[in-house]
Amino acid sequence: MKSCATGLAVLLACFPYAIAAPATAVAPTRSESVPTSHGPFTGTPTTTGALSNSVLASSIAPLPPNPTATTYPSDGQLHEPQPAPYTPAGGLGTNGTEPIYNVRSDFDYQSLAIALYQEWLELDLFHNGLATFSEADFTAAGLTAEDRYLIQFMAEQEVGHATVISNMLGAQAPMPCAYNYPFTTVREFVDFCQKLTRFGESSVYGFLEHLDSREAATILLQSITTEARQQIIFRQFNGLFPMPVWFEVGVPQSWAWTLMAPYISWCPANQTRLAWQNFPALWILNQPNPARVNGSAGYNETLTAGMNTLSNANLTSSQACLNTTDKSNDCGPAITQNRTIPLSWPGREVRLMWDTPGKPVGPNNSYITSSQAGSAKFVAWVTQLNVTYSPLTLQSNTSNNATNGTMQMGTTIQPNVETFAGDPAINGTMFIAITDADPVLTPFNLSMINPHVVAGPALYQAG
């Protein structure tokens, strides 16, 4: 692997399809083999904490809008000379400069690195699911040989994604790791995949517009649109309505790293480390379960915190919606499903439990959960174009056990909010977090919420 620079040969190495190449010059995929072992990390970490340098402030202070942000007249007329026929003035990277597909800043490198961690995980995950479960297991879940091949093809897509991001990062690009998955059934595997691809897609939306390298942003956009298709397919496999929102949500990198890290057990020596934060874990105790006829009726039916993937291990035949005689609430694989009983609704009480900071997580247990926030006061609902807050009611009881130690508990009410009239904002697979404040934020500056996060995020299966 080579670092990017100018020149035809190096440009092809950095991004093999940047220009047309002869048919014999087929660009290779990244060749590192994926570890075959799975399970939790059992050793002693040699390094702990996120990658860090000198820190200039405790948080990034909010600033007023740029004074020129509203000066363009927006009247449909041309206001500057055209640089070429049929070409309006303006735009970034439109002046004819030869594009170089590399990273330009620490922000770029760390953002693409977390995306690569995600691609390696997905590559292993799809292969692992196919290897773990038999043809009979998939058939019992309503999935055919063609469906299994589609999952195999998605793994092949991840080879391409991992290759192109590795080429843009250079020689120190993260390598594949070993992973620890909680699922034991096909249904749980499929739900794990649809939730993993949700935050993989959303994290790229969260940083894409902030990259210094517009060229790298272009390639990531082309890969993440494929990830979006994967997320829809896993929703269809899960018997969920494929696209229940008008806008897809974007989240900060630290949110994705918090959700991803618990499933990475160990990585190779000298693995590139990340600078992003790991927040304390958040459980949704009454997470809507799409494997149920009445999805909102379950309690403690998730496999882990964070992703809150469904567990169908203890569902009776009358409770399970797969192959149910109640066809209005069937959840078998389908192009689309519109279930009569909703998974959630405005006014629903949501019961939460969250961890305290200071727990080891992630590769080699070498990252430590942390929070800069004060006391827990709100639940942030991050979905589509909205960041909505609901009051958090703290419970006097706490949970104490040998595995997780002391954890706080609380409840909140699912808000009734629309993106635009006729579009319920809280729908699909979306994000919640416990916060100490309710700052007004938009999709473009959502990372400003990080200093206020007490715990989370968690994926809420709203629909």
From TrEMBL:
It comes from the Eukaryota. InterPro entries: Rds1. Keywords: Signal. Residues 35-48 have a biased composition (Low complexity). Transmembrane segments: none annotated. Residues 28-48, 63-93 are annotated as: Disordered. Residues 1-20 form the signal peptide. The keyword Signal applies. PANTHER family: PROTEIN RDS1 (PTHR38705:SF1). This is Protein rds1.
